Amino acid sequence: MLVLRSIAFNVLFYVTLAVLMIGGLPMILFGRLAVHHVTKAWSTLSLKLLKCVCGLEIEFRGVENVTKGGCIIASKHQSALETFALTQHVGDCAFILKKELTQIPLFGLYLKATEQIAIDRSSGRAALQQAIQDAKRVLAQGRKLIIFPEGTRTQPRATPNYKLGIVQIYTATGATCVPVALNTGLFWPRRSFLRRPGKIVIEFLEPIQPGLDKKSFFALLQKRIETASTSLIEESLRLDPTLEKAIDEASPS
After folding, report:
1. Residue 194: how many CB atoms within 10 A of its CB?
2. Is the separation of the CB atoms in 78 and 120 below 8 Å?
């Protein structure tokens, strides 16, 4: 049953995405905010599909910690789910993402229309400088800037590997940073098509105010995200010990 439900969800997930992207094309003519409604609809429908098809619910905690206006949302990254689920509570936002994604037919058009920050990772320091300049622009517009500090998806309980880019952006922009903890990797493993039933928790943590030195900010950000994410994972495992399988599936072969 788990396999069948997962297959059904994945099919419906991508069909829904394709239908919305094609049907929403006229919205591009009306600018970024209009296109944002299409992406929000995709996020909402996808979360409903997860609940109806897979029995997987999403609980958002600490939403009150999302400050008004421009701020940095620094999130743990364990699955593809948070790339759309976070938009439920951050409003108009921009992700820092790899440039290759903008070359995907149709999908890339939407990334450009919503003014995401696409960087060429191979360009090294130039990519960081571009990200900083674009981040300042996004924050000045009162939008949220979403960053995955580790740069890629990681398995639950993996040794954290935070990149220094988040530090440079925090200090250069002088923005408040809201850390985000989650347990998505238990239910949406990064190397599996399975979508396990249960309850995903995405938790917005206490904001880190601007003004900290680089070393203090880096240590505090990692401590808050990792401590809270570990707590969420252990909470889920106490309720359903079989979720250990998801950790094994996500482990490098």
Report:
1. 19
2. no
